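Example for tutorial group B:
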C-alpha cells in the first residue's frame, strides 16, 4: 500500500484537514515481478544454447575436429542449438509485436476450413516423421472475419504441440464445427497429457510441464502464450481438457464477426 497526502487549507491558510490517498500497488508490484522474471527467463533461455555452441566449437578447435565422426556430431549439435536460438528470438519478437499498443490484426473474410486444409500437409509430414497419425474432420466451409496468417500460427502451434507431446503410434485429430455465431476448432491428441494443477499455467511464457521434452522437440516455451494472445485478440476463447497419459484437447472458439475492442 502506498499513501500520499495533501492538506486542505481554508481561505486564511488555516488547516482544515487532510486528504489521504491510498494506492493499492499490489498489482503494480506483481507486474514488476513478472517483468523481472521474464528478463531472467529470457537470459537463461539464451544462455543455454550459447554455452553449448561455444563449448562444442572450442572442443573442435582444440583438436576434436581431426576425428571426422566427432566433427560431424558436434557440428550437428551446433546447428541444432543455433536453430533453437533462432526460434526463440523469432517467438520473442512475435510476442513483443502482439503486445504493442498499436498492434492491429489484419482482418479479412477467411474460410477456416481452407486455412486448416492448407496446414494439413505440413503437419502430416511432421507427424509421419514421428510415427503419429493425423486425422481431420473438417466439414464444409466456415467463413469468419479474422487475421489469416495469425490464425494459421495458432493452429500450427497447437498441431505441432499435439504431435510433439504424443508418442509414436499415437493419433492427433483436428475437427471443425460451425455454429451460427462462432466457429470451433478442436485439436486432440492421445499423448502424454498435462497434470490438472498445471493446466492453468501452460499459457504463461516459458512455463513447461517437462522442460527436457519441450527443448528436445524444439519448443521455445512461448507458443501457447502467442496462441492465447491471438485468440483473445479475435475476442475468442481457448480452453483445455487433459488427462495424464490419456491425452489433451484444445478447443478454440472464434466469433464469426470481428468487433474491435
Ligand atoms: P513449448 O515450446 O514448450 O511446447 P508451449 O507454450 O507451446 O511451449 O507449451 C507450453 C507447455 O504446455 C509445453 O512445454 C508442454 O508442457 C505443455 N503442452 C502444450 N501442448 C501440449 C499437449 N498437446 N500435450 C501435452 N502437453 C502440452
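The residue assignment follows.
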Amino acid at each position: 500500500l502506498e499513501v500520499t497526502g495533501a492538506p486542505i487549507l481554508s481561505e486564511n491558510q488555516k488547516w482544515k484537514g487532510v486528504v489521504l490517498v491510498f494506492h493499492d500497488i499490489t498489482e503494480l508490484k506483481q507486474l514488476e515481478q513478472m517483468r523481472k522474471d521474464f528478463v531472467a527467463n529470457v537470459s537463461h533461455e539464451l544462455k543455454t544454447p550459447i554455452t553449448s555452441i561455444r563449448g562444442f566449437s572450442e572442443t573442435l578447435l582444440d583438436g576434436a575436429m581431426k576425428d571426422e565422426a566427432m566433427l560431424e556430431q558436434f557440428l550437428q549439435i551446433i546447428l541444432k542449438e543455433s536453430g533453437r536460438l533462432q526460434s526463440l528470438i523469432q517467438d520473442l519478437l512475435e510476442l513483443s509485436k502482439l503486445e504493442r499498443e498499436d498492434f492491429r490484426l489484419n482482418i479479412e473474410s477467411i474460410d477456416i476450413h481452407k486455412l486448416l486444409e492448407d496446414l494439413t500437409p505440413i503437419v502430416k509430414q511432421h507427424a509421419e516423421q514421428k510415427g503419429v497419425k493425423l486425422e481431420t474432420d473438417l466439414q464444409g466451409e466456415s467463413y469468419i472475419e479474422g487475421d489469416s496468417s495469425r490464425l494459421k500460427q495458432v493452429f500450427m502451434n497447437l498441431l505441432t504441440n499435439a504431435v510433439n507431446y504424443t508418442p509414436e503410434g499415437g493419433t492427433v485429430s483436428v475437427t471443425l464445427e460451425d455454429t451460427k455465431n462462432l466457429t470451433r476448432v478442436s485439436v486432440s491428441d492421445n499423448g502424454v497429457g498435462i497434470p490438472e494443477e498445471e493446466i492453468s499455467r501452460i499459457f504463461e511464457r516459458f512455463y513447461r510441464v517437462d522442460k527436457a521434452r519441450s527443448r528436445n522437440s524444439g519448443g521455445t516455451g512461448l507458443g501457447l502464450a502467442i496462441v492465447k494472445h491471438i485468440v483473445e485478440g479475435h475476442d475468442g476463447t481457448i480452453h483445455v481438457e487433459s488427462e495424464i497419459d490419456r491425452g489433451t484437447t484444445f478447443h478454440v472458439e472464434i466469433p464469426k464477426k470481428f468487433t474491435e475492442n
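The chain has six helices and nine strands. Compare this with the pattern of hydrophobic and polar residues in the output above.
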